Amino acid sequence: MREPGKKWERELERWLTPYLDAFEHKVRRRWAPIYIRGLILPGERKSIEPIVERVAPDEKEQIHHFVATSMWDTAPIEVVHADRCNELVGGPDAHLIIDDTALPKKGVHSVGVAHQYCGALGKQSNCQCLVSLTLARDDVPIPIALRLYLPESWASDAERREKARVPEEISFRPKWRIALDEIDRLIEHRVQFGDVLADAGYGSCGEFRAELTKRNLVWTVGILSTQTAYTASVQVRPPTPKTPSGRTPKRGTPTEESRSVAKLIEELGPSAVRSVTWRKGTKGPLSGRFAMMRVRPADGPRTHPNNYHLPGDEVWLVGEFRKDETKYYLSNLPASASFKKVVSAIKARWSCEQMHQQMKEELGLDHFEGRSWHGLHHHAVLGMIAFTFLQHIRLREKNG
């Protein structure tokens, strides 16, 4: 991402006006632009002390209080931010991308830190995990929500909660539920997007997919190779009058057994694999090898006494054949959708990973050194504003 041009500070002052109205208190209205400017300016570290040294050397105590100690609510600012994101990249052809991003941490006292999978390191490690929602259109991503995932070990620890000032209303929620609550918030605020994209960390959860469908959302998600499904032609036989045990079953039985998605794609054979180009990149066309078929995931009602899932709604199953592995996806795009359209939806998710990297490397998303719930979310929302401003500059220059 290019640094803004010569007049960027005056443009930032103008662009921040709606946000400042939402900050309300005059002290917060004063320090927010200064902190955001400190995030944007060059510098290796974007934690509070280095930022203060760059933009307000004599105001360390006040800026520390504004970001790390005070308990102002981010909700009014996030309302304005949703509007900004919608103005820049929202629309029926926009994607809402669900993911999470890890912030490696030493020690055990920073809010939400736990020994868990850390994508930044590619292994289990001490880190905080933020559930991330990104609005993207034409490969331009903008962070629209960042929410800390609070592990059960934290949610149930009253002493640690108190020290980190975790709000009383915050309880343990799985990541997919946090994402779904944020989706509901954005829908209520009328943010426009055409579909929801997610990796296997979210897509493997049948309840998450079902909830998206209930909301009449189009979705394309990654899944594990062990996910089971039936072919689209499966039928469910009516229940027999009685089982050998004498019980009358309430549900029927499928005409075939479910198999892993890996097995289903394998059964298609080499002739089903196609080379698909989904867009032109800076180094030429981007293409890969894919196979796809219509299936019904085994996430319908559970039968008794056999205790297996009946077929769910019909969707696309896609296998992507990479050099060293095969990836699998489900999509509820209509049966009439083209091969390229389904693959393009799968590949649109990459932009959120690019955004996470830029927010860390250029804006210090993972540099915050405070320990409190409010401090982390203050730093995150101010970082989102800074990144969105830079995208605003980029789009303005691109569009002339």
Describe this protein with a few key phrases.
12-stranded mixed beta sheet, 24% strand, 14 strands, 3 domains, alpha+beta, globular, 400 residues
Structure description:
- The protein contains 15 helices and 14 strands.
- By secondary structure, the protein is an alpha+beta fold.
- The longest helix is centred in the C-terminal third of the chain and has 27 residues, at 373-399.
- The model has no long low-confidence stretch (mean pLDDT 92).
Short overview:
The chain has helices at residues 8-15, 17-23, 26-40, 48-55, 60-69, 75-89, 152-155, 158-163, 175-188, 200-203, 206-214, 261-268, 339-347, 350-361, 373-399; strands at 95-104, 114-118, 123-137, 140-149, 195-198, 219-223, 228-231, 236-237, 253-254, 259-260, 274-281, 284-297, 315-321, 326-331. It is α+β, with helices and mostly antiparallel strands and 400 residues long. It has 3 domains: 8-73 and 353-399, no CATH class; 95-199, no CATH class; 219-348, no CATH class.
